[in-house]
Amino acid sequence: AGDVVTVPVLRNDTHPDGLELFLQPELEQDVDSALGEAFVSEDTLRFKAGSEAGTAYAIYRVRDVNGQEDSAQVTIRIRDGEDNAPPQPREIEARVLSGSSVRIAVPLDGIDPDGDSVQVTGIATPAGKGTARVVDGMIEYAASKNATGADTFTYSVLDARGATATGTVNVGIARPADTNQSPVAVDDEVTVRPGRTVSVAALANDTDPDGDQVGLVPGGIEDTHDLDAEVVADRIVLTSPDQDGSYTFYYQIQDTYGARATGAVTVNVSANAPLLPPVARDDTVPVEDILGKTEVTVPVLDNDEDPDGAASELTVTTDASTASVTPDGELTVTLTEGRQVITYTATDIDGLTAKAFVKVPGLTDQ
C-alpha cells in the first residue's frame, strides 16, 4: 500500500499478423479512485496505490497500424505492509573499452517478490579494474586505461519498505583499436507544426565504434535554410518555418579524441501534424540530498521531453499537499518522517499531459 508499480502491459500481447501494437494514452476503464490512481506512460501502465489493501482493476486498449483495437484488463493486488521479502536484483553484463566509460541501465521493474518499487542506492563492492558509481539511477563504470579482461562488482538496491539486496555486474573490457575511429551519426526525422520550437535529441541514435563519448559540436549546424537551429547542451533546439514543407539541415558530432561525423535532421512541417503528448520520467531523490534539510527541490523537467516541443515550455502541477511548484518548474517537497511518492503532471503548450512520480526519502532514512 502507498507504493507505485510499473506494468509492461504489451509484453504478453500479440497480433495474429505479427503487427506492432501501440498502447493508447487513455484507459478504457480507470481504477477505483479509493484504491489509487493509474495512468498510461509511453508503453506501460503506472499505478500508485492508496493507503488501504485491496484489488484494483483497469482496462487498457491497444491499436495496430491499421487502426484495429482490442482491450484487456490489468489486475493489481494491493498488499498491507506486514511481510516484506527483499528484492531479487538481476545479474547484469556490460562491455567497455580500456580507458572509456559506459552507463549501465539497472532493471528494477518486477524484481521485488512483493511488487514494491525498488531503487539503486550505491555500489556494494568496488570494481577491480575501474571505478563504478551510481548516477541518476544508472551505474557509470569507467575502465582503467590499461585494463583488459573481465571485471566484477556489486550494487545495492532498496525496496520501498526498507529491505535491501545486492546484484552483480560483469563487465568485459577490450583494448581499443590502434587508430581512433570516427563516430557514426544516424539521420533523424521529426514532424511538427509551423512555428514550433522543438528540442531534438539527435545524439540518441548516434554511436562510436570505439565506445568513446560523443557530443554535439557547438556551432556545427550547417545548411539550415529557413530553420532557426542551434546546439543547446546535448540537444538541437530549432524553430520550424511558418510554411509547410520538408527541410533538412546538418549537424556535427565529435568523440573525445576530436574525430567528427556529420548527420542530417529532416524536419517535416505540416499544419496537420499530429499533436504528441510530452514524456514525463520519474525522479528519485538520494538520501544524501536531504541530509540536514527540511525540504528538497527537484528539477523534474530535466529528464522530461516533448516530442513536438521543448521541455523548457512544459508546465508542472501537483496535487500533493507537501509539494509546491517553483517559478522555474521545479518541485519543492517538504520532508516528512516517512518516504513519499509524489505524482506530478507535465502539460505542454497544446494542453496534452504526462504524469510521473517523484520518490523522496523520509527524515527517518537519514
TrEMBL record:
Domain of life from the UniProt record: Bacteria
Disordered: annotated segments: 303-325
Chain segments annotated as transmembrane: none
Listed name of the protein: Fibronectin type III domain-containing protein
Extent of Low complexity compositional bias: 315-325
